[in-house]
Amino acid sequence: MRVYLKRNLAGYTGTVDEAIFYYNPKIRQTLMRPYRYPTLNHNNERTRSIMSNLKALNPSQGYRNNLADYVMYYNECREYYDKPMVGWNNAWLKMMFALQKAMPGQVDLRTITRQQITDQNLPCDTVKHALEFGLLPPVPDNGRWTNPI
After folding, report:
1. Which of 17, 45, 59, 140 could form a disulfide with 63 if both were Cys (CB 3.0 to 4.6 A apart)?
2. Contact 123, 132 (CB under 8 A)
């Protein structure tokens, strides 16, 4: 539902009573929706365990910088213009879930460790290796991102 405000509060976001207000930049409108508490199921627990394990992997600062550079090149490509990435963690999650999809019997994101990544030489050990394996969409000038996880 579109919201019409008497005073020009273009960036108004937040909650009031049982409603959530947010600004949608694509249509340049403030929208409102009713607040609904999400229903919890077994997938919520699975997602929570995956995300907490991926956070515990804690990639090195050089690896994060490589992912940030990758995101900058990715966002400059015309073919990915409609699906931008905001930060390095978007590329990190995209790469890790693509790894699990590519190697379903070998990789479980709930239990993966840095030791397993290095011992099994998994393609997420460097950003360059992930691009060569196809875990991330290709971008130009991708041969220099070699910092280890």
Report:
1. 59
2. yes
Three-class secondary structure of residue 145 per DSSP: coil
- Reading the block at residue 141, the tokens are 């000038």
Choose among 74, 79, 76: nearest CA to 135: 74
DSSP helix/strand/coil, 32: strand
Which residue bears the tokens 């460790």? 113
Q: Is the pLDDT of residue 1 over 80?
A: no
Q: How far is CA 58 from CA 78, 93, 136, 149, in A?
A: 31, 12, 19, 8
Q: Please state, in angstroms and as integers, the Cα–Cα distance from residue 43 to each residue in 28, 40, 46, 48, 92, following that order.
A: 34, 8, 5, 8, 21
For residue 92, the SS3 value is helix
Alpha helix segments (H runs only) across the chain: 42-57, 61-76, 88-102, 114-119, 127-133
The chain-wide mean pLDDT, for the chain, equals 83
User: What pLDDT is attached to residue 8?
Assistant: 59
- The two tokens of residue 113 are 């460790």
From residue 96, alpha-carbon distances to 45, 55, 147 in Å are 18, 12, 17
